[in-house]
Amino acid sequence: AEPGDEQTRRAVARRLGTFGRGAVLFYREPIEAVSAEGVWIQGADGRRYLDVYNNVPSVGHCHPRVVEAIRRQVGTLNIHTRYLNAVVDSYAERLLASLPEPIGNVVLTCTGSEANDLALRVARAATGGSGFIVSEMAYHGNTAAVTDISPSSRTGRPLAPHVRTVPAPDSYRKPDEHPGKAMAAAVSEAIADMADKGIRFAGMVADTIFSSDGVHADPPGLLAPVVAVVHAQGGLFIADEVQPGFGRTGDALWGFQRHDIVPDIVTMGKPMGNGFPMGGMALRPDLLTAFNASDKYFNTFGGNPVAAAAGLAVLDVIRDEGLIENARDVGRYLRDGLREIANRHLAIGEVRGAGLFIGLEFVTDRESKTPAPETASAMINGLRERGVLIGAAGAYGNTLKIRPPLCFGKEHADAFVDHCDAVLNRIQG
Ligand code: PMP
């Protein structure tokens, strides 16, 4: 349907005219964003929108310390990594200090996709294998190789022959199953199936909060038996921290730390520069050595001093403003608030998540647990009308993906719960 007002209709026509009709815009009535601060986005319509969706400006939109770090560095030096530069080295050291042994090297990129693409190359070189395992609705990025391991981008097309999927953990629909043991068994089967077809296993790539599968964080530790199987079969475990990393889960800086595992490779992006494009891959030094024996990697813009300055400021703000603790406390408070309204709204099937990464799943009724994507979609548009930005995820598109900037306060959580309550009152009659 066409948007209602003339100004929006013209702005949409202008966008589709240049970017093509396939260009994706959120909402029946798309929002024109003009500026942002903290948890708020200012619209061209004069309204201010509460951002409960965007996990890139993770320490808050236009955080003054990050803005100032970028401004200062871009006026001083901005160049690639083939010259020594103390800002870049400091950043690499700070990042590695946040990761467990034996992870000891880092390669900086511009996007999460590039980081995952490189991780696949490293895993192939280090293991001699080519087979990868991912979750059923995984998204790991947009390069050709990474699209092969992103089943959520390939709907309607068969998986590439070297890729196998395993179901994501699902405490709601499979309450009787131990998610870690079930996933470990599925991974074993997938590796055996690859072997049958002459494909050697290289590794498993997993978003440690399974965001595109619908946000599945529990129980903590679930990935430990999975990683044990991956290692026993000679593969590498690649933790894709693009979504859960940089404090979002409220447990620690990294989502995998919730599961008491040590990945072989960690990839990261999105919140790393709070909006300045940057990504990275951290890994065991022996793996990088194995890769470099037969291959090379250079990224013109990856790890430039401006990105490094932005990245350092992000780490400083997370520490100085206690954002991991805030994600933990406000996240718990928000889940409690949503569970409270779930007592009245039977359309809510489950509230789950960790820190400020919460899934709110809608069903047609609680007995059958039939997914209700139409309720999720009505919520997204109803909340937008009330000035709140949110999106959906999961195999059925029926789970709201709640992941606001980490400076989200209890007052914002209260407002969000009240808005959800009001929209549910309206759409459920
Ligand atoms: N991995 C995950 C889990 C992601 O969610 C995304 C982006 N949505 C990526 C990788 C790719 O990152 P980018 O868009 O920066 O290439």
TrEMBL record:
Its cofactor is pyridoxal 5'-phosphate. It comes from the Bacteria. One of its GO terms (molecular function) is transaminase activity. Residues 150-179 are annotated as: Disordered. Keywords: Aminotransferase, Pyridoxal phosphate, Transferase. Pfam families: Aminotran_3. The keyword Transferase applies. Belongs to the class-III pyridoxal-phosphate-dependent aminotransferase family. This is Aspartate aminotransferase family protein. It comes from Labrys okinawensis.
